[in-house]
Design goal:
CATH topology of the largest domain: Nucleotidyltransferase, domain 5
CATH architecture of the largest domain: 2-Layer Sandwich
Strand order of the largest sheet: 3-2-1-4-5
CATH superfamily of the largest domain: Ribonuclease H-like superfamily/Ribonuclease H
Distance between the termini: 45 Å
Number of helices: 28
Oligomer: single chain
CATH class of the largest domain: Alpha Beta
Radius of gyration: 26 Å
Helix content: 40-55%
Number of strands: 18
Largest sheet: 5 strands, mixed
Number of domains: 4
Strand content: 5-15%
Structural class: alpha+beta
Shape: globular
């Protein structure tokens, strides 16, 4: 049986402009509460005003085993978790885990390929979806519901909210029934796998990210020192260094450098990549100092000042990034850093991989430890599966180091000799392996020599000429010839069917007319990358569902960060998490005709008290 659930939430102030009603973690602070709960469906119709904890549990237990839709379910489920369980470290209550949660906003994204339509501005709000589909749904009263949703009511105590909750749940139920019939049968498994992660990911919102104050102050002091030192040595104020236009006037004026490129208006191009390229091509120490100073200014803005703003808002030493299903076209999880105009977190999914200063102050809750499971060579393994390239398949199934293997191809060294030197930490071989990694990861998605040379410099701090970049591209193509065949075949499929897709059938819609035009290159890159990167997102969701009782703090890059208890129990749980994730049966979950040709695996980190510890 199918039901829909909707919550109306409020701030204790009664003033909705403070945004507390949008922050489920406020329930544990005593600053927000569930003002009403509404259920409508095949068996039950329930409306309860200002429900107690016991009432919430009773209502959810009535729905045990049922499919229950909510619109943006992460929000409703997070409020329910926080209202039932005051301890953020507690495991999920059985009343929460006993329900098969579904999400109509997520279902709409799966039905529309997760992409904004070309002829309308597609928002996934309930109001907008009902407005779009009302004629096809065929129920009376849709226009009245839309007008009701468009009313602006600032007082949480207005009876409007209870009436709206009853209408929201009714139309959520109707929308769910309609969209279920629209979802292609092949896509249903992928949608259900993602929906199955609802409670875990909602709980990650409530866990938050703890900020270690001592480490934070240390990071701030170092970053401020780097900024002062840079400004003094360059003889320039912060305002000039942080302004592309003013900095361009200095570099291409009094410093006498020639522009590398010009904007359409004829002015020297002065973006971030320009300074990187110019610094390495010229070797001028001023430009290298400039890069360091600009990086420090960026870190201060994103990871110091934003944290101060967020901590002032949250009030308990935690950052609370709001998770979003299907946050990108590839389906990967993303996190929002704001409530209304209030900062509540940093961009959690964009935390720098290598900046130890920042990662050192980000921590699990006190008295717990952090554990990371990182997908092993994820994109290269998935490319091997999609392309069927026999050499990639052999490399991973024989346990050969993929990036070392490519380095051997580039530099003409035997694999045995290379690995011996690399494991002995000989610097040249460490740098050569980095070049192998650059080549493998960049060339997966069709790249030219010029773009590769630029990427090497801006992302890997490695200078190469365009000719050297071309040589690396050709080395990759010779080593793995079926990859190029994959590019052609997936583009041909998209031209015929109008979409690209993942192994779990998450589709990315693309206009066929564009693929057949002179502008095809603008979308071909995403057509090629979506099956690889999107399947990586599916891998995360499938593996997450293999450990439903484990507590996730966040998902970042290819890693999942877990909260485990301190002491022997935490060590035991971390081992269990990794073991279960690597037992995930992707063939069965994704309904594939054959076993995967390459295993999709995670590797585990040591336990740590910060994000720097586990990297």
């Amino acid at each position: 049986m199918t039901h829909a659930l909707d919550l109306e939430t409020s701030s204790i102030s009664g003033d909705l402009s403070d945004g507390y009603a949008l922050e489920p973690w406020r329930a544990r602070q005593g600053k927000g509460f569930i003002s009403s709960i509404h259920v409508y469906g095949d068996k039950y119709t329930i409306n309860a005003k200002r429900p107690s904890r016991e009432q919430l549990i009773d209502i959810l237990e009535q729905l045990k085993g049922e499919e229950v839709y909510a619109h943006y379910a992460l929000f409703d489920v997070a409020w329910l978790i926080a209202s039932i369980e005051p301890n953020k470290l507690a495991r999920l209550h059985a009343a929460i885990t006993g329900i098969r949660w579904r999400d109509t906003a997520l279902l709409a994204k799966w039905c529309t390929n997760g992409r904004k339509a070309d002829d309308i501005r597609l928002s996934y709000s309930l109001l907008n979806l009902i407005n779009i589909f009302k004629d096809k749904m065929g129920f009376p009263g849709a226009d009245e519901f839309i007008r009701m949703k468009q009313q602006e009511v600032s007082s949480a105590n207005d009876p409007y909210w209870e009436a709206r909750g009853q209408q929201d749940v009714l139309w959520t139920y109707r929308l769910a029934k309609y969209l279920e019939a629209q979802l292609p049968a092949q896509c249903k498994r992928g949608f259900l796998i993602e929906a199955r992660c609802t409670a875990q990911i909602a709980n990650s919102w409530l866990v938050g990210m703890y900020v270690n104050d001592d480490a934070f102050k240390k990071a701030e002091a170092q970053i401020e020192a780097d900024i002062r030192s840079g400004c003094e040595s360059l003889g320039l104020p912060e305002s000039v260094i942080s302004s592309p236009a003013q900095l361009g006037s200095v570099v291409f004026g009094s410093w006498g450098f020639q522009p590398l490129e010009r904007t359409p208006t004829g002015k020297p191009k002065a973006d971030a990549d320009t300074w990187i390229l110019l610094a390495h091509s010229s070797g001028d120490p001023r430009l290298k100092q400039l890069l360091k100073c600009r990086q420090a200014l960026t870190l201060r803005s994103k990871y110091i000042r934003t944290v101060y703003d967020a901590l002032a808002r949250t009030g308990d030493g935690y950052l609370y990034g709001k998770p979003s299903f299907f946050g990108t076209t590839s389906g990967r999880l993303s996190y929002s850093s704001s409530t209304l105009d209030f900062k509540v977190s940093i961009a959690q999914h964009q935390i720098p991989r290598k900046d130890k200063l920042i990662r050192d102050y980000l921590a699990p809750p006190p008295f717990t430890k952090l554990y990371e499971t990182d997908a092993m060579a994820q994109e290269s393994r998935i490319m091997g599966i999609w392309s069927g390239d026999s050499e990639i398949i052999r490399i991973f199934n024989e346990g050969i180091n993929f990036h070392s293997h490519m380095a051997c191809k580039i530099y003409g060294v035997s694999y045995e000799e290379f690995q011996a030197q690399y494991k002995a930490e000989v610097q040249q071989f460490i740098e050569w392996r980095q070049m192998g990694k650059l080549t493998n990861l960049s060339c997966n998605f069709r790249i030219g020599g010029k773009s590769l040379s630029k990427k090497a410099l801006t992302e890997y701090d490695t200078y190469m000429t365009e000719i050297e970049g071309r040589k690396l591209v050709q080395t990759f193509k010779r080593a793995y010839p079926k990859v190029e065949d994959y590019w052609k075949s997936i583009i041909a499929f998209a031209k015929e069917n109008g979409y690209s897709y993942t192994l779990a059938q998450r589709r990315w819609k693309v206009p066929i007319e564009m693929l057949n035009s002179s502008d095809a290159w603008k979308v071909e890159g995403t057509v090629i990358s979506h099956p690889i990167q999107g399947t990586g997102g599916e891998m995360f969701l499938a593996a997450l569902s293999s450990v439903p009782d484990a507590r996730i703090q966040t998902n970042m890059h290819d890693g999942i960060f877990w909260i485990v208890d301190d002491g022997p129990e935490g060590k035991e749980e971390s081992e269990y998490i990794l073991e279960q994730m690597n037992k995930t049966n992707y063939q069965a979950l994704w309904d594939l005709p054959d076993p995967l040709s390459i295993p999709l695996l995670y590797e585990g980190s040591r336990l740590g008290r910060s994000y720097a510890d586990v990297k």
